[in-house]
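Our platform keeps sequence and structure together, in a single record for each protein. Nothing more is needed to write down the fold, since each code stands for a local backbone conformation. An entry from our holdings is shown next, in its original layout:
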Amino acid sequence: MPFRPPPVEGAGRHFGWVMRRFSSVYLRELFRPLVQMFVFVLGSGLVLSTIMVLLSLVMRGSAADKALIARNGTSLLTFTVSNLPQVLIDSVTLGFVYATIALGYSMVYGVLEFINFAHSEIFATGAFLGTELLIALEASGRLSGLSNLAAYGWLAVAITAGMVGAGVLAMAVERIAYRPLRGAPRLVPLISAIGVSFFLQDAIRLIESVTTGQFHRIFPTFGNFDQRLMIGSITLPNGNLEIGIQVKSVIVIVGAMLMLMALNFLVNATKIGKAIRAVAQDRPTASLMGIDVNRMIALTFLVGGALGGAAGVLYALKFTRIDPFVGFFPGLKAFTAAVLGGIGNLTGALLGGIVLGMLENFAGAYLSAFTMGAAGAEYKDILAFGILIMVLIFRPTGLLGEQVGQKA
């Protein structure tokens, strides 16, 4: 019997079902990270807040409690509870910065199963490209007297420049330093990555010395980025405690959320993402199925580098001052976040970044008060890395486990 097309009405229903299915998949992959972010932020904040409140209750009447009352007129419990909203806001901002950088580590590890230690310098390159562009615009007078909308536009241009430059540099690093060593033992590309990291550090320093003669660069002041948006205030015995968030912190959070959503959509809802996941799962089989393995690996570096470059510009916006070694500590923290969440797992990188940012900021805010000044904010890394060690002792694959070969 010859083939006959289905009736128009049936075809229309089938087309409608396909479009609804198509739309539901796309919407799910686009907005699923929002749900994950909300759950991770709420869960981490609730757990750490509960721990701090319980500690302040246990230490009621202790020497630290009496010392704080004598100094500020507030008890440990009052101090802890009243500062929680602001600490949570600052923790979320820092956590999203770490999460954005950690995604680059996880993507590369998911595909090649090695740690790209040069990713911290890719981050620094993006920070310098965006900052130098804005400094040049400031010198030309284009940043003076801007409206808020125009200021956001120029910031978006700087972020785009950082993403493009860092992404292209990451692709070049993969092509020159990693691809020739792909068949070598894993220790060899690891050493190459460390060498590239030092090379890029000194290259940034050399370029800055030749072109500007300055070691440190300051992010230009323009727009309303430093403005503080007031959320509320808490009445204390010695005055009112105002709670707010800077506009640039909001930009960091929103920018990181948009990038995380876009990455999740790319990896899980597009043909390119499917090809990347296939290469991560089985490179020889993916090649036999017609996937260009080298192109997918280069694309992975491009995406990871672009995320790192954008995170670098956002970091410069938030913390203002950068230098050629600015990527070392944020890169180390982001790598720690990736391991904490489960290296190779994109969702784990998000969770690890948020948890690490929470731990670091809570320790910086409360450690001095609870130890009567014996251990201040400078010891916050000890607490964060100590908890990381404990997690890895009892769960070596991280909080969400390793999913290499399932997600790039």
